[in-house]
Amino acid sequence: MGNFNEHALELSIIELLQNKGYIHQTGSELLREKSEVLIADDLKEYLHTRYASDELTESEIDSIILSLRTVGGTLYEANKTIMSMIIDGFVFNREDRNKKDIFIELINYGEPKKNIFKIVNQLEIEGYNYQIRIPDGIIYVNGLPLVVLEFKTAIQENTTIMDAYTQLTVRYQRDIPEIFKYNTFVVISDGANSKYGSLFTQYEFFYAWRKVYDDDKDARLGVYYYENGAYPRKPRIVYDRKNTSVNKISVDDYGDGLYSATRCFHTSGITLALSPQVRETAIEMIKRFKAQGTKISFDVNFRGNLWTGAQAKECIESILPYVDIFFCSEDTARLTFLKEGDIRSIMKSFTEDYPISIVASTQRIVHSPRRHTFGSVIYSGKYDVFYEEAPYKDIEVVDRIGSGDAYISGVLYGLLSHPGEYQRALEYGNAVSALKNTVPGDLLYTDLSEIEGIIREHKSTGRVSEMDR
After folding, report:
1. Predicted confidence (pLDDT) per residue in 343-382, tens digit
2. Average pLDDT of 426-445?
3. Number of compact structural domains in the chain
């Protein structure tokens, strides 16, 4: 089974960019002084080609490059000056005053294909006090290092995407500031989460990376409308997903390196229900991941607004032979898969019918739209053991949307970070889901220390403080 470490993430990003037409070079392939951050040959080639009719001389091109290298002031001031030159262009005074001055654009915005796009990894850069720093990746356009990428692994408990931010904005900015004179933005990623922002931006203002691989003029994202409920009126959802970009998804959108570099692949019944095209793509990806030894995680997540129970049963039963970790509620097991018996016998039956190793089932009691009790059960087919704990009672629900996905994220984190510790995985899942119910929006923003604090308090039999301070 592949390990999705920093190197694997780096190679996946490189492959993705290569598929978009970027040239890949390693730092050792560039002939340069270690303190040099420009790819001067690329910039010279671009200027020669772009301004061939103006007959720029070698010394004039050298003069343009020198004007970039010698921009002074603080790092912020130098970056601001160079960004203005890159974005707005500038007037270049010719050596021969009989020739007309030229308006120089360092990037050809009108004809993007005439630029030189490169991704360079493992470039050794010598900075202050001969300190060597090696960014994970740098995106060059016409020899200008416009984007710096830093990766961390999501599978190490004590390493987070915040460490990548600190590496860039503290250590690299201190030791190799020269590269950031030309920087438009930086990217940080742990493979599961990716963010981007300015070098001078605080972490909380970094944006989550969003990309829609759909260049059609009618491209659109799916929308759902959620109407809050209050007893006795139930919450209601209306989906608007017809003809959305996700329905055009194809296995060709992803490089082969993705399959060998992934430890666990998760998808759900909602994905399978969207359209035949999405269903075909998801099933093919499941097969390719499985062939590489990747753990397959699947959540039934049945939605009657998207397909019928019979359609779901037929489709999902066809992929269960590939599934390792299976999430299915008791109600869904009864209504969709026509299972009978108590919850434990139902969960165990899935491992008897299919080569599933772990089954997880959430147990939610809805007292009212604003008051829930939440718990779960995990069954290990390998050890024939059920795991559970006391439920989280009387959760004050702010927004339940996303709490099921939050549960799965907690369980998968536990299983991947602490293999074989199923009780611990269950505790992570329950705590993350309970917490998600208390915040608005689809996504939960938290950290490991907060989740572990909630778990400790949930287990506590003594007095618990009503505020963290």
Report:
1. 999 999 999 999 999 999 999 999 988 899 999 999 999 9
2. 91
3. 2
As a whole number of Å, the CA-based R_g of the chain is: 27
- In terms of domains, do 320 and 388 share one? yes
For residue 425, is it within any domain?
yes
- Range 144-159 average pLDDT: 79
Question: Are 199 and 232 found together in one domain?
Answer: no
In a domain, 220, yes or no: no
* Residue 213 in domain: no
List the one residue out of 354, 296, 363, 361 whose CA is nearest residue 325. 296
Count other C-beta atoms under 10 Å from residue 90's C-beta: 14
pLDDT band at 127 (very low <50, low <70, confident <90, very high): confident
| Tens digit of each residue's pLDDT (9 = 90 or more) over 92-103 | 999 888 889 999
